[in-house]
């Protein structure tokens, strides 16, 4: 009872402090809001919207169920989740945060996975996208395209390791039979695809409209969190709370021989990974290895902003947030350790600044300036895409409400 009252007082006091700070520092609040809005409508919305819509359509057409039957022999023994988890894993890796949580919640609502399986699945299907890692962080912030491979190995391998650990979460003896490897014929997968499509009686037009409606609503929620945490991060800095926390983190960094100058960027990254990655790349009094290790940690931890987005998505189901939060801490530490371990054998050996370097395999043949050009194109035309989709969403909403 006392713990509950203490939590109430803390939450109420924090909200009151933020409200007063916004009134006292209106200019700071406005600038932070604009920064968050620019990130959302210029980068996040146009990059995530297509993946969200396609994932909804694939679920409706039965393709996800087809993939689930095919991948059952792989996903069940490794991660103790149904084969449909492979779809969440692939889409989460391709589109970035918080797509994995969105798809997992959708699968749970469709009752294709159990509560425990959903909690296992969501813990390792939320990634930073390859575009963000290779272009935004490596090229945009560190101005070193070769670091993208280091970040990617640490980030994706780290999340898979988290999934292998989380397979033991909520494990019961009843699962032993279903966890055995078995060969499933293609015919069974095709039958499951056809059955799912037939059972979903919505016409294609309505299915597309529902997909757009659901995707836009989720992205509006994500945009709200991005703006909110941009403001909170900026206010904490001006209230000197960040510097207080930095003094504590600084002592921890000193114990592992990291400079204290990394503490404030690190704390910023705990709240929002984009800002944290940018600030870490700008710290002069530190080695590149130290910057990359901490950046790998915050990429794995995902930041409170993304965690809040995931919590909001999971709140629509019975999936608990606590396992996801624990997994994020694990991912942060595992990614940082992997970065440290592969730095010498991979980066210093093959990608040393004194040597001529090449892009990762999946980006081979693309020049540095061309990749940067794609990123700038997205920033330039992203707002137009966002506005166009929002207008289409308003049209659909009006049509459904008044017809």
UniProtKB/TrEMBL annotation:
<feature type="transmembrane region" description="Helical">
    <location>
        <begin position="379"/>
        <end position="398"/>
    </location>
</feature>
<feature type="transmembrane region" description="Helical">
    <location>
        <begin position="216"/>
        <end position="237"/>
    </location>
</feature>
<feature type="transmembrane region" description="Helical">
    <location>
        <begin position="325"/>
        <end position="343"/>
    </location>
</feature>
<feature type="transmembrane region" description="Helical">
    <location>
        <begin position="78"/>
        <end position="101"/>
    </location>
</feature>
<dbReference type="InterPro" id="IPR011642">
    <property type="entry name" value="Gate_dom"/>
</dbReference>
<dbReference type="Pfam" id="PF07670">
    <property type="entry name" value="Gate"/>
</dbReference>
<protein>
    <submittedName>
        <fullName>Sporulation integral membrane protein YlbJ</fullName>
    </submittedName>
</protein>
<feature type="transmembrane region" description="Helical">
    <location>
        <begin position="149"/>
        <end position="169"/>
    </location>
</feature>
<feature type="transmembrane region" description="Helical">
    <location>
        <begin position="244"/>
        <end position="268"/>
    </location>
</feature>
<feature type="transmembrane region" description="Helical">
    <location>
        <begin position="121"/>
        <end position="142"/>
    </location>
</feature>
<keyword id="KW-1133">Transmembrane helix</keyword>
<feature type="domain" description="Nucleoside transporter/FeoB GTPase Gate">
    <location>
        <begin position="43"/>
        <end position="141"/>
    </location>
</feature>
<keyword id="KW-0812">Transmembrane</keyword>
<keyword id="KW-0472">Membrane</keyword>
<feature type="transmembrane region" description="Helical">
    <location>
        <begin position="48"/>
        <end position="71"/>
    </location>
</feature>
<dbReference type="InterPro" id="IPR014226">
    <property type="entry name" value="Spore_IM_YlbJ"/>
</dbReference>
<feature type="transmembrane region" description="Helical">
    <location>
        <begin position="288"/>
        <end position="313"/>
    </location>
</feature>
């Amino acid at each position: 009872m006392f713990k509950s009252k203490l939590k109430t007082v803390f939450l109420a006091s924090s909200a009151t402090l933020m409200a007063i700070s916004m009134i006292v520092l209106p200019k700071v609040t406005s600038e932070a809001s604009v920064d968050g809005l620019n990130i959302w409508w210029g980068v996040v919305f146009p990059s995530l919207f297509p993946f969200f819509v396609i994932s909804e359509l694939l679920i409706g057409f039965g393709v996800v169920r087809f993939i689930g039957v095919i991948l059952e022999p792989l996903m069940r023994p490794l991660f103790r989740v149904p084969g449909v988890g492979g779809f969440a894993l692939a889409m989460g890796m391709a589109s970035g945060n918080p797509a994995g949580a969105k798809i997992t919640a959708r699968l749970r609502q469709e009752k294709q996975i159990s509560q425990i399986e959903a909690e296992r699945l969501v813990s390792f299907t939320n990634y930073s996208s390859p575009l963000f890692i290779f272009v935004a962080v490596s090229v945009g912030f560190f101005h070193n395209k070769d670091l993208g491979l280091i970040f990617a190995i640490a980030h994706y391998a780290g999340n898979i390791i988290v999934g292998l650990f989380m397979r033991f979460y909520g494990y019961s003896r009843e699962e032993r039979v279903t966890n055995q490897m078995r060969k499933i014929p293609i015919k069974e997968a095709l039958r499951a695809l056809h059955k799912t499509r037939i059972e979903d009686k919505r016409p294609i037009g309505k299915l597309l409209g529902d997909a757009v409606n659901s995707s836009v609503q989720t992205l509006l929620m994500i945009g709200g969190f991005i703006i909110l945490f941009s403001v909170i991060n900026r206010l904490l800095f001006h209230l000197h709370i960040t510097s207080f926390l930095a003094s504590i983190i600084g002592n921890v960094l000193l114990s592992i021989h990291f400079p204290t100058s990394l503490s404030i960027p690190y704390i910023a990254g705990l709240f929002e990974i984009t800002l944290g990655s940018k600030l870490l790349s700008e710290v002069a009094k530190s080695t590149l290895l130290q910057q990359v290790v901490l950046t790998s940690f915050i990429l794995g931890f995902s930041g409170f902003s993304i965690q809040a987005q995931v919590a909001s998505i999971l709140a629509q189901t019975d999936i608990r947030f606590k396992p996801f939060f624990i997994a994020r801490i694990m991912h942060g530490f595992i990614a940082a350790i992997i970065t440290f371990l592969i730095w010498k054998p991979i980066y210093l050996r093959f990608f040393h600044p004194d040597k001529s370097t090449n892009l990762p395999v999946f980006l081979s043949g693309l020049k540095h300036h061309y990749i940067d050009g794609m990123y700038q194109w997205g920033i330039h035309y992203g707002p137009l895409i966002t506005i166009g989709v929002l207008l289409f969403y308003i049209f659909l909403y009006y049509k459904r409400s008044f017809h």
